[in-house]
Description:
The chain is α/β, with parallel strands linked by helices.
Amino acid sequence: MRFDEAYSGKVFIMARPDFHEAKAVLYGMPMDWTVSFRPGSRFGPNRIREASIGLEEYSPYLDKHLEEVAYFDAGDIPLPFGNAEKSLTQIYNYITTLLDKGKFPLGLGGEHLVTWPIIQAVHQKHPNVKLIHIDAHADLREEYEGEVLSHSTPVRKACELIGPKNVYSFGIRSGMREEFEYAKTSGMYMARYDVAAPLAEVLPSLAGEDVYVTIDIDVLDPAFAPGTGTAEVGGISSKELLEAIHLIAKSDVRVVGADLVEVAPAYDSSEQTAIAASKFVREMLLGWVKE
């Protein structure tokens, strides 16, 4: 995958044509090799790009326009179908190169396991990085049916790498009893069910810190995002997730990268999930990428 070539397919609205002038790089990770229920999130990145065409370029929430942020859409990383280990290695190498070139990486998934190699690469660049994890699921399993490379494991792996006390999870409403026990005893932070209110309480303690943010679209209630592989009822609204994104944007944390994962277009004929995801990406670009 060439870093300096414009993507030949559909790009996110108002993406710049020049990689070298871009502050941020938008890229896709079309992988769903380890999902435990419904596949299809590998098609998420392109549907989010296509849905972005319906967006306004201006955000009234942040009073910013996409022309104010230089970002490049690199397209999807060409991952080897079905090979999780090799796919994760390619993602790690890709993000390492982006960080070495001083770019802000903003990834589109794909299943949530794709976040694991990104955290590894970001940790290499920012050894004191904190993780903000917004999701319906705890993702704290050590393995799933004997498989350690699973979409159920990335946050547990992050805890083991950067330390549980540096991991902050929000919106969690699903997981094994053992996962919730681990959250209680390990020293990590877990807010169940809600996102915006507990996030507002935590952010002041992270002022000045390097933070990576991962958002699983299934943190939304299925009424707002049916197009995902493992939907969980009892979730938050699109409005609350927008509020959370803006809280981070207006805080004093240094966001050093982010991703939005688990959009599976096949399960949403209305396309409301991809439409919502594209708006979240717009707000992330405008709020988290600093010039």
